[in-house]
Amino acid sequence: MDHTLPPPRATGSLPGVFVSLRAGLGFATQVLVGAVLVFFASLIAMMTALAGLMLAAAALLLRYVVQRRPAIVHPTRVEDAPITLNARRTPRGWTVE
Q1: Residue 75: phi, psi to the nearest 5?
Q2: Dist CA 97 CA 94 (whole Å)
Q3: pLDDT tens digit sequence for 19-71
Q4: Are 83 and 77 contacting, i.e. CB atoms less than 8 angstroms apart?
Q5: Rg (CA), the chain
Q6: What pTM does this model have?
Q7: What is the DSSP secondary-structure string of 62-88?
Q8: Is 78 left (phi over 0), alpha (psi -120 to 50) or beta?
Q9: 3-state secondary structure of 2
Q10: Contact yes or no for 5/19 (Cβ under 8 A)
Q11: For the chain, which terminus, N or C, has the lower number of CB atoms within 10 Å?
Q12: Residue 96 β-bridge partners
């Protein structure tokens, strides 16, 4: 069975204009909401990229600009004294001097 709308009333075209205006505003609203979502998604992506660049810059700054502590100077060995070994932790493990 086929369902169709009844024919429009002959009172004028004013209700048709309101229906068209409502449909146009609905479409414009959907486009605006989509544009706002895309804008906020791109804003979040840019903020994330900026945070990553700032972390990378801080890592490079710590790697190349910060001065390292000087090595500890150990006293020379006396012939009659017992030998004392000094161990210190390095990035590759322990080093004994």
Answers
A1: -70, 155
A2: 10
A3: 889 999 999 999 999 999 999 999 999 999 999 999 999 999 988 887 777 76
A4: yes
A5: 38
A6: 0.49
A7: HHHTSPPPPPPPPPPPPTTSPP---EE
A8: beta
A9: coil
A10: no
A11: N
A12: 87
